[in-house]
Design goal:
One of its GO terms (molecular function) is dihydropyrimidinase activity. The longest helix is centred in the middle third of the chain and has 18 residues, at about 215-235. By secondary structure, this protein is of the alpha/beta class. It has helices spanning about 80-85, 105-115, 135-145, 165-180, 190-200, 210-215, 215-235, 245-255, 265-270, 295-305, 320-325, 345-355, 360-375, and strands at about 5-10, 10-15, 20, 20-25, 30-35, 45-50, 55, 60, 70, 70-75, 90-95, 120-130, 150-155, 180-185, 235-240, 260-265, 310-315, 390-400, 420-430, 435-440, 440, 450-455, 470. The chain contains 13 helices and 23 strands. The strands form 5 sheets. It has an 8-stranded parallel beta sheet with strand order 8-11-12-13-14-15-16-17. A 7-stranded mixed beta sheet has the order 3-2-7-18-19-20-21. The radius of gyration is 21 Å and the shape is globular. α3 packs across α4 (about 165-180). The chain folds into 2 domains: about 5-55 and about 390-400 and about 420-470, Urease, subunit C, domain 1 (Roll), CATH 2.30.40.10; about 55-375, Alpha-Beta Barrel (TIM Barrel). Bound molecules: zinc ion. Zinc ion (ZN) binds next to loops.
């Protein structure tokens, strides 16, 4: 059990409000939010947070740990990924159990859960369905009962993870009745394969041509199809890494018709644009969907303020430069994905709170509260209300620093944000009431991260039920 702590003199920021308050922690939980200066019992450790924001630790809803796709496996394990996470102010990650070809969803989930040890912070898992057979309903029932109510699906990557429309429909209907939800990567595979074939014939299939090989309309078409399935079934659905304003607007329009549909965006699609593919190192920016043109990026970011984007994830995928460079001449066989679990909160805070006037309450909602809600982890995570886990990011909103891969902790040798000047970073990060990071130094390397069993998913902003602990 962690010793009692009071965080004094800071401004607490929740999804709905901010106020000066002292935060009392004990036994791994938040025990009280109190008037500034409230006396503490003897023996309570005081942490000075004057001039700081006191935020619930970030919840990253989209984080791949040691992910195998094609010929490549991303390079981190739970110890490495969660170390990077806590340095960046994130105290809960949600990873994926993606089956290898022929592997069942349940076997993939059990294998990935067995690897979920040694973390510095808590984690949860999305399951994944690729193919339908008569055993899938029972597998889904036991996965939901086992704390995995969210199930990843893909409309792309034929032969690896692509699911057909029948499988998507049946999985969505089954999860609807179990209190779960499909979380889906939407890009119309037939359009992408055809576009890639034509690009290849023209000699335009290297990393510098990444954006053209996966057009925006492939995403729009696939989102529209999946929304129609969800609307027909009255099932909830969560779209991962939406990269265009059109895709977000389709989801928002469905939500206005009563569909429980949600948009996730990821930091790199909100900040970086496709001009990077014209630079000297285009392979460093190869991700799916690709980076988009600047007007598209800015149009997407405008939906942070409108409320039409539900969550911001990282889509962290930790390949190194040797992996990224090895197949740079053909995007069809390159490892897709960017490292980002550590930079998600600082980059988004700097660009949109410091630099864009986004209210800090909305920042907390997008990066902690809503990810917790959409993953059945609220109000245990994503809030500092009494009873929540004592995961806290004490945030210095005026710290100015420059992102360099050398100073980061992810298991790779580059960052797509190299050289970017940012304002704001976590000064002290607590997990379960213990200081884990302070002033850029790892204060407690003891791996106390637990695997969380998520409860039923709840509507972001809607009624909530608590998650269960699995140990
Ligand atoms: Zn992903």
């Amino acid at each position: 059990m962690s010793a009692p702590v009071v965080i004094r003199g800071g401004t607490v920021a929740e999804a709905g409000w901010t106020a000066p308050a002292d935060v009392f922690l004990a036994g791994g939980k938040v025990t009280a939010l109190a008037e500034p200066g409230t006396p503490a019992p003897r023996g309570v450790t005081e942490i000075d947070a004057r001039g700081m924001l006191v935020l619930p630790g970030g919840v990253d809803p989209h984080c791949h740990v040691g992910f195998t796709s094609g010929d490549f496996t991303s390079l981190d394990d739970y110890a490495q990924c969660t170390t990077a996470a806590v340095f960046g102010g994130t105290t809960t990650i949600v990873d994926f159990a993606i089956p290898r070809p022929g592997q069942s969803p349940a076997d993939a989930a059990h294998a990935q859960r067995a690897r979920a040890a040694g973390g510095l912070c808590d984690s949860a898992l999305h399951a994944c369905v690729v193919e339908w057979d008569e055993t899938v309903p029972e597998q889904l029932r036991s996965l939901v009962a086992d704390g995995m109510p969210t199930v990843k699906m893909f409309t792309t990557y034929r032969g690896e993870t692509m699911a057909d429309e029948d499988t998507i429909l049946r999985t969505m209907a089954t999860l609807r009745d179990l209190g779960g939800m499909v979380v889906i990567h939407c890009e119309a595979n037939h359009i992408i394969e055809d576009t890639q074939t034509r690009c290849s014939h023209d000699g335009r299939i290297g990393a510098e041509h990444m954006a053209a090989t996966r057009p925006e309309l492939a995403e729009t078409a696939s989102v529209a199809e999946v929304l129609a399935i969800a609307e027909s079934l009255r099932a909830p659905v969560y779209f991962v890494h939406q990269s265009t304003p059109e895709a977000v607007e389709l989801v928002a329009a469905a939500r206005r018709r009563g569909v429980a549909a949600y948009s996730e965006s990821v930091a790199h699609h909100l900040v970086l644009d496709d001009s990077l593919y014209a630079g000297a190192t285009p392979e460093r920016f190869v991700c799916c969907p690709p980076l988009r043109p600047r007007p598209v990026v800015d149009g997407l970011a405008r939906h942070l303020a409108t409320g039409e984007i539900t969550t911001i994830g990282s889509d962290h995928c930790c390949y190194d430069l040797a992996q990224k460079e090895s197949r740079r001449s053909d995007v069809r066989v390159m490892p897709n994905g960017l490292p980002g679990v550590e930079t998600r909160l600082p980059v988004v805070f700097s660009e949109f709170v410091t630099g864009g006037g986004l209210p800090v309450t909305r920042f907390v909602e997008l990066t902690a509260a809503n990810p917790a809600r959409a993953n059945g982890l609220y109000p245990r995570k994503g809030t500092l209300m009494p009873g929540a886990d004592a995961d806290v990011a004490i945030w210095d909103p005026s710290a100015q620093w420059t992102i360099t891969s050398e100073a980061l902790h992810m298991a790779t040798d580059y960052t797509p944000y190299e050289g970017m000047a940012v304002t704001g970073r976590p000064r002290t990060v607590l997990v379960g009431g213990r200081v884990v990071v302070h002033d850029g130094v790892l204060a407690d390397p003891e791996p106390r991260g637990r695997h969380l069993a998520a409860g039923p998913v709840t509507s972001p902003g809607g009624r909530t039920r608590a998650a269960r602990a699995s140990r």
